[in-house]
Amino acid sequence: MQIAVMPMQPRRAERVLTGKHAPLSGPWTPEQVKWLRRIGIVALVGVVALFLWNIRTILPLFLLGLCGAYLLNPLVDRLAKQGLPRTLAIVIVFTVLGMAALSVLILVVPPLIDQATQFVQACLPPKGRYYLLAQQLLTTVERRALRGDVPPFIEESVRQMWEQMGKFLLGLLQGTLASLSGLFSFVLLPLIVFYALQIFDPMRNRLRWWVPAEYREALAELVREIESLVGRYVRGYMVLCLAVGVVDTLFLSVCQWVFGMDFALAIGVLGGALYAVPYFGAIITTGAGVLAAYTTAQHHPIACAVTVAVGLIGINQLFDWFIMPRLVGHRVGLHPLTVLFAVMAGGTLMGVLGMLLAVPVAGAIKLTLQALFPYHFLPDTEQEDAAKMTVTHHSEGGDKA
């Protein structure tokens, strides 16, 4: 059985495209219809919010998949413009990235596993290096506490740290086992990115027609500015993180060769991964490097720790001041206090992923506020000029009256 599809009438098509609909007929007044629409919108938003809250455990996976599709979409569009079918372009991009990721896994993962194993063994009794250091520290504190040289709260803190060490190792083992159950999510992630890439452009064009015609062009311009900012920031920082990880690893490898310290590769990879987190990433990487240098160096541990601290801080400053502005462009124009607040808020809401996305999201919010309230984002001199022009305009209008 065939179903006949009636073509849309021209007047109706014009109303749909322009967003202008005829008022509802019936016993309702226009004011009542307006309030009914508002109530319906509020109810719809509430239902959607309740639905998202109930499925909040799977939202980070889909959000990560959409971010991956957003980053890969320009590459797919460029291949599609060459005449390739979009599905074939997506397959080519996935193949190239998959081969690159496989190469990195083969080269980096085995040494990382080896260093992680060494770290766990160094924490285990009875001959682990960190175990012996902690035991020596506890013995020293207890001996001085008996003589009254150490306040009671310090002794209690050291005892709690000793107890937490065993809990940490147990949690590390449990986390490793739990991560095996998370492999299913990593299998789903490429599928989410693949299908999101197929509908990315059509979905964006369809969403554009949901906006009223009088706001459509302004919103499109705002979206283009946000895409430019976020895309430049994220893609640039991906390259920067890779470069920082390589440079940190090379520098720490030299320190390992000179002083005999351990965990050079692990700390270098950590430095590259955390470079995208403003302020906190450099602090965590430098702290981990200094701790590893002081506790694992075969000779001159203090000199090794100082060298590692100066080197890691210098590498971060070099990339921050000279390489990052050229590769990423100027910063997103946020005050350092705003950046700190955004990073802490992102970490509270979404953990590490929230800290990574905090700065571009804050930049997008700033662009949106600039579009809505442009006067409040003008420099002080321009605000004064605008205020003077407004006063002059009103005074001239009063004189004419």
UniProtKB/TrEMBL annotation:
Compartment list: Cell membrane
Keywords: Cell membrane, Membrane, Transmembrane, Transmembrane helix, Transport
Transmembrane segments: 35-53, 59-76, 88-109, 168-197, 237-259, 265-294, 301-319, 339-365
Pfam families: AI-2E_transport
Tagged with keyword Transport: yes
Membrane topology: Multi-pass membrane protein
Record family assignment: Belongs to the autoinducer-2 exporter (AI-2E) (TC 2.A.86) family.
Name of the protein in question: AI-2 transport protein TqsA
Natural source organism: Candidatus Fervidibacter japonicus
